[in-house]
TrEMBL record:
Keywords: Signal. It comes from Bacteroides pyogenes. Coiled coil: none annotated. It holds the Pfam family LolA_2. This is Outer membrane lipoprotein carrier protein LolA.
Amino acid sequence: MRKYIFSIIVALLSLPVAAQQRQPQAKTVLDNAAEAFRKAGGVQAEFAVKTYNNGQLESFSDGLIRLKGEKFLLKTSEATTWFDGTTQWSYMDGSDEVNISNPTQEELRTINPYALLYSYRKGFSYALGKVADFHGKPVFEVILTATDRKQSFSRIVLYVARNTYQPVFISLQQPGAKNRSEITVTAYRTGKKYADTDFVFDKKKFPKAEIIDLR
């Protein structure tokens, strides 16, 4: 589970769910959150991740993610992942290895948590919850329930700040399991300027790394 969570850190888009499964207010919140992210330019978010197994805390970690459109750079204590919009490089600190792949859209939804802002248009019903405050911040709670068994998560709970529509908390429940993860955004900065090369693995900085091309 711990390894899997590091993957999901690194599109809530496509086929609509049935109209009766949608709640207009929840869709408005999700649309506004997606639009706020689109307009934010370069984004840097710091986060903390907790994983639970049968209700018991299993692990805790933190990290940082930088985003520019579909591109991202993800850093955790165990790995660094770069994605330039097509190719992904994952460097594992412990093994000094770099895995290269071309992830699918489905795989990207489980790598980059901010892709969840767009996934609601495919395979989920959604509704507003009752939580109105998170760590002293007014929030909207949106609860997404999978209507497609192929989804990676059966239930997603998203807290969005009422004033900025920035995500502050995401809870992810795996289907058919008593495991869940919680991502809390601890810092969020917008308008950052990033070069495209910031999202590409630089072999010169890791001269001894073993390259494993999985494409």
